Amino acid sequence: MLSMHRLRLLFIATAAIVLLPLSSIIPAYAHFEHFTHYNNRGGDVGPYYAYEALEPEYAAPNEPIAVMFSVQDLDGRDTYNIDTMVEIYSATTGERLKAWPWTRQEIGDFQVFYNFPELGSYQIVLSVAKDGKNPANLNGVDQPRETLSSMAGCNCDRVIFNVSITKNFGTIWYTMMLISVSLPLSVLGGVLVWNYRRRVIKKSGMYGMRTQSDTARYIIMLAAIAGGIVHLAVYAEHASLRLEYSIFLLVAAGMQIVYGVAYTLLTLAGQAANESAHKYYQKKVAVNLFGLVGTGVLIALYAYSVILPPPLSPNDRPESIDIAGILAKAIEVFTVIGIVYLMRLEKQQLTGQLKEQT
């Protein structure tokens, strides 16, 4: 039987699981289309913070790959008119394979293209001229170095990014992510179907009022979990604006899933033999209020963000409306309506139980 104390612990534990791994991430605010999971690095380069990513991120050999950079100041703002040089070295042999000459970048977001010749590890070196001054070999290329970070003979700062060129890692990654999401949901769905058939459907095959109410519960809970999954699917795209946006979406997804699972478990456990109907009703009200208020806040924040620039936005303009956002909000509106329906249903059932007792 799930007590309120255990439910609170479940909420706290889920929040900790979501937040703790993120607490050690350096807050780099790159202007890429999405926050990549692989072959992305960040590092200080003099008075700037440089962020690197490959497109596609799961780069394979002998394919055109975009090596993207976003050089920001230490407050996460754009940089302009900086002089840069890019080099690529083999991590195995130390040989310099490619070098792009010193170039004046009008903005700190730029990219170069390269075909990595074979599987393995490579080192990408980004050099940035100091204090906006021209380096010694402006319009040229520095000589290869044994120590890649050495700044001898160059009035510049350097940062090194390590990348890995693989063949099937992307397929393995996406397959594992699909399994990690679909397997728990399949188990939960199987348990709900088994419980539905065992406890709800009458032997005569007729659907009674209890059957309809339990069906509604399961549909609403699955909708809440689906809203969390949508947030899990889109969180990476928002880190290109602010890393805090992705942290918020991960927490929101965790709380939506926690609500759906908690209410489902509370319903499956049922009322304890030594528990009053009123106490059991209060537990469900507490869980439903958690889901109702949380989902309502998400809807309100989305409406705010598409009308006005959201807090901490580096672009100072409203978010664009996309399919993922519409889908998530449609699910959440349905969830809010469903939670209100469940709360009314729970109230009616409590009233009926109290009348039977009297």
Question: Roughly how many Å is the radius of gyration?
Answer: 27 Å
The largest sheet has its strands arranged as 1-2-3-6
Q: Mean pLDDT, rounded to whole units?
A: 77
Distance between the termini: 26 Å
**Class from helix and strand fractions:** alpha+beta
Largest sheet: 4 strands, antiparallel
Give the total of beta strands: 8
Shape: elongated
Assembly of the depicted chains: single chain
Poorly predicted ranges (pLDDT <50, ≥5 residues)? 1-29, 203-209
Q: Treating each run of at least 4 consecutive H or I residues as one helix, how many helices? A: 6
Number of domains: 2
**Roughly what percent helix?**
40-55%
Along the chain, the helix and strand elements come as HEEEEEEEEHHHHH
Strand content: 15-25%
Characteristic key phrases:
2 domains; four-stranded antiparallel sheet; 358 residues; disordered N terminus; 6 helices; Immunoglobulin-like; 47% helix
Descriptive report:
This protein has six helices and eight strands; from the N terminus they run H-E-E-E-E-E-E-E-E-H-H-H-H-H. By secondary structure, the chain is α+β, with helices and mostly antiparallel strands. The strands form two sheets. A four-stranded antiparallel beta sheet has the order 1-2-3-6, with no helix packed on it. Strands 5-4-7-8 form a four-stranded antiparallel beta sheet, with no helix packed on it. Residues 1-29 and 203-209 have low confidence and may be disordered.
